[in-house]
Amino acid sequence: MVLDIKSVLVVDGVGANCAEILKSHGISVTTKAKITKEELLKEIPNHEALVVRSASQVTKEVLAAGTKLKVVGRAGAGVDNIDVPAASQKGVGVINAPGANALSACELTCALTLALARHVAPAASALKAGRWDRALYTGSEVNGKTLAILGLGRVGREVAVRMHSFGMKIIGFDPFVSSEQCAEFHATKMELEQIWPLADYITLHTPLIDSTRNFINASSLGKCKKGVKIVNVGRGGLINERDLLDALNSGQVGAAALDVFEQEPPTDPLTLEIIQHASVIATPHLGASTKEAQVRVGQEIAEQLVNLVKPGTYSTPLAEVTRILKK
Q: Residue 23, SS3?
């Protein structure tokens, strides 16, 4: 299939290389690093393609306003900020760049896991405040502990390889990955009901869809070991925030490291209470915020768009959006 794409709107601070690649193939580009919903609705009718990251919501209203729109590209993993059913109904294609930021998200996940184990953030804050609380922040080794990885796609697999090298036992859940595939990256495949009581650490790497929304909740947390630690560099909304706060306060969850939230930037009092909790490390959606990932996502989504106009120009494959949606 060949699409006639003359103009692309690039928003949300997608790397400059995205525009450069598109322009080099004769495609006009309008770049707006920050754009309001009202500005997006006003601008979108002028373009055949839209490239976003996670900040802009591509709603049914936006899609309807895009009278020329033929494709929406998400420069990153997941498509949960795009109304895919509405796009499909309108005949607008949806593509993404799921592998481009995998290493960056993986490395932050590993860093946060180790930070929880060794109380890095509170110990550093205490020392800066003039307190030498060495005994208070005695940590634990991750060696010999069990890490449950929920979602064994690109990021989850990279996490498994790295944390296995720290001596962790890796167990995981993903309905689309076989036991044989899991063994290739040192993981043992299990069902969720088997995982909950075994995990010392749980890290989340699934898309946010109906079946995964709030799937970390009071029920699942109640089946875990007391003091289990949670890391979420995946998607806000995978964890029921009220249930997480209750579990942190009771000690059922020993600590949590959160890079993503249901509302971003967070203003809800519940979310802010979680962020301020003594047992929580919170970061502002930094999973893909590396120089390397910014370059890769911009390049990958631009190459996919060029391939839609001039098939075969790049070897970059179209993203497997179908697999994401079925999860």
A: helix
Instruction: Return the CA Rg of the chain.
Output: 21
Distance CA(280)–CA(112), nearest Å, equals: 10
Contact 195, 167 (CB under 8 A): no
Annotation says 154 is catalytic: no
With CA atoms as reference, report the closest residue to 195 among 186, 183, 184, 187: 187
pLDDT surpassing 80 at residue 320: no
* 186 is annotated as an active-site residue: no
pLDDT per residue as tens digits for the range 276-289 = 999 999 999 999 88
The answer for residues whose C-beta is within 8 angstroms of residue 233's C-beta and 6 or more apart is 105, 108, 109, 112, 155, 203, 204, 205, 259, 260, 287
Active-site residue among 235, 262, 296, 303? 235
What the block records as the tokens of 201 is 């650490």
Q: Is 242 a catalytic residue?
A: no
Tokens of 45: 């009718």
Determine the Cα–Cα distance for residues 143 and 168; give it in Å rounded to an integer.
5
Which member of 20, 184, 193, 264 is catalytic?
Answer: 264
Q: Can you give the pTM of this predicted structure?
A: 0.84
Nearest alpha carbon to residue 83 among 115, 102, 58: 58
Q: 231: closest CA among 200, 269, 208?
A: 200
Q: How remote is the C-alpha of 60 from its chain's centroid?
A: 22
- Residue-wise pLDDT for 251-284, tens only, equals 999 999 999 999 999 999 999 999 999 999 999 9
- Cα angle 67, 301, 55 (rounded to 5 degrees) comes to 70
The per-residue DSSP string of 28-52 comes to EEEEESS--HHHHHHHGGG-SEEEE
